[in-house]
Amino acid sequence: MIILKSPPDWLPVLLRTAVIGAAGGAVATWLNVPLSWMLGALFATAAFALAGMKLDMPKPLKLGSRICIGLILGTAINAESFARIGQWPASLALLVGGIAFITFLSALYYNRAAGFDRLTAVSASFPGGLSGITAIAIEQGANAPASVTSQLFRLTAIVVLVPFVYAFWLGKPATMPAQEGLAFWVGQNLWIVLLAVPAWSLGRLVRLPAAELLAPMILAGGLGVAGFPLELPIWLFALVFIVLGSTIGARFRGITWRMVAALGGHSIIATTCSLALVVGLAFPVAWVADVPVYVALLAVAPGGIAEMAMLAAVFGLDPVFVTFHQAFRSIVLYAIAPFLLARLASGASK
To answer: What is the distance between the alpha carbons of residues 161 and 185, in angstroms, rounded to a whole number?
Structure first.
């Protein structure tokens, strides 16, 4: 007698999420929405998550998508890109100082206007801190719904607005590179994917920051500089975008419409003001780094590293500059945030 084992608990969740995300991406592509596979997946999964459906992407798939993003970014690297990295200390200093100031003002607003305690206000304001930083803050005693909802509003607003703004600003659609025939399915040198996981493992071994992004990026970029340019299949772009969008959308599960109504207004105001200040920060960063303002803006935008880097890759906006600045900001954030949150928590307990 053959006993059929039931599928693991995560499999139905993954299948639901993948089907909803892919369907949302397909509809958005049909409607010619910028970055359709990511935004369509985001909107579709967020709608179902808000309705109470359990959706999620397993950690290995999230990790795999970020490794593939690193490879995609690496295909844009050339010898000139490496030569410019030493010219960016001033822009990096401006980035850190500017983001610190913007985070302070955002936290001040949440504390004074929204009534958040100081720990929750800071947790809600940290840029790019939806996963790790928010979890640390909640462990320290921050209000979980307020922190998560505020962070989700900021990240979603940036990921949704930026493609439309840039498509209008640059006068070209945010679409994936066109490929036909065999290149569409297999690309060129797809074997690089087999080397990406060992590269990530080596990056972790040497404690490379954001190793899942930077190690594959260095691998692909090094091959490009050495004279072996890579071209990845378009379906890989689509899969990565579906995972990114679905991951963000699935995080809306557990957030009720009552919470959205109560916190949404303050989140919109804080996010709008922060974005206005980020636009102001982009101008001096562009000036000291000698890059266009629209490149600097993507480098300082308080979104996730992977999301902003992929936008830079799709638009062809100096992915190396954008990724390097986003990664540097994240490194500084994760170095400072635990100590600051612990101090705020200890102060609140006295």
So the answer is: 30
